[in-house]
């Protein structure tokens, strides 16, 4: 898979799409890794919105924010949510504290839901809470691997956001997802050489089967979109 003739899907974030040589591969799985507040949810929502504008259907599964919060978030950005909500955009809140229900819903019901909706873009935000359901390390690895393999059978592009631990902003909390997905986008704060202030910066750490930028680029979360400054340098 992943020859260069393959279709790519865009985030609709110009600077990021160019760092990804035009977008991530259709049907692939991408993880956005970053500490809280870096913009993982925002990047994922923009990815969904880009699909909706193109007439695609999308599913946003939230494990941390309430549905109303997500609706409010989208509305605040001035996106014409009403046009899409419950017609082509389905926002679902799962409760990760209810172990069996959450695991079964994600593992068993999600593939059916994707098919019945005909969703081309799916987000799980954040996957860390799914991983955290499993207390045993090898079970967690196995279950995550199985889930990801299962999702590869679905005809959709999947984004999994992933939290980092406080002491390591470079890796996801359980350091598993990076090995299993096709693309890893890392969001983190960096301090430029003049030490004046920290800036959020984005980096494509990995992209199976494609060239991608190795540069670290600053970005900003504006009211209605994410702006990646691909011409600027952070160092
Ligand atoms: N409507 C908005 N306009 C401008 N900035 C926003 C808006 N919504 C959220 N933000 C900012 O974007 C940042 C990233 O938010 P979010 O995507 O939820 O991060 P994460 O999912 O990584 O925790 C927040 O710290 C907030 O300051
Ligand atoms: Mg978030």
From TrEMBL:
Pfam families noted in UniProt: ATPase
Keyword terms of this UniProt record: ATP-binding, Nucleotide-binding
Annotated ranges, domain KaiC: 7-235
Parts of the chain that traverse the membrane: none
A single MF term (Gene Ontology): ATP binding
InterPro entries to which the protein is assigned, alphabetical: Circ_KaiC_arc, KaiC-like_dom, KaiC_dom, P-loop_NTPase
Superkingdom in the source lineage: Archaea
SUPFAM superfamilies attached to this UniProt entry: P-loop containing nucleoside triphosphate hydrolases
PROSITE patterns: KAIC (PS51146)
Name of the protein in its database record: Putative circadian clock protein, KaiC
Organism: Methanofollis liminatans DSM 4140
């Amino acid at each position: 898979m992943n020859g260069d003739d393959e279709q790519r899907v865009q985030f609709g974030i110009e600077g990021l799409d160019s760092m990804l040589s035009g977008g991530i591969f259709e049907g692939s799985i991408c993880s956005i890794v970053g500490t809280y507040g870096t913009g993982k949810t925002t990047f994922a929502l923009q990815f969904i919105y880009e699909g909706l504008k193109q007439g695609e259907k999308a599913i946003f599964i939230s494990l941390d924010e309430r549905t109303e919060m997500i609706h409010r978030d989208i509305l605040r950005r001035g996106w014409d949510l009403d046009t899409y909500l419950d017609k082509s955009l389905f926002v679902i809140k799962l409760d990760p504290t209810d172990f069996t229900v959450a695991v079964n819903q994600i593992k068993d019901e999600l593939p059916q839901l994707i098919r019945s909706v005909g969703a081309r873009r799916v987000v799980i935000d954040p996957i860390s809470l799914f991983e955290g359901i499993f207390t045993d390390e090898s079970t967690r690895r196995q279950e995550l691997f199985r889930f990801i393999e299962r999702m590869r059978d679905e005809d959709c592009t999947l984004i999994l956001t992933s939290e980092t631990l406080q002491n390591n902003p470079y890796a996801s909390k359980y350091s598993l997802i990076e090995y299993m997905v096709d693309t890893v986008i890392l969001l983190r704060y960096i301090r430029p050489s003049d030490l004046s202030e920290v800036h959020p910066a984005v980096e494509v750490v990995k992209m199976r089967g494609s060239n991608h930028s190795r540069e670290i680029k600053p970005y900003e979360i504006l009211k209605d979109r994410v702006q990646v400054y691909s011409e600027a340098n952070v160092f």
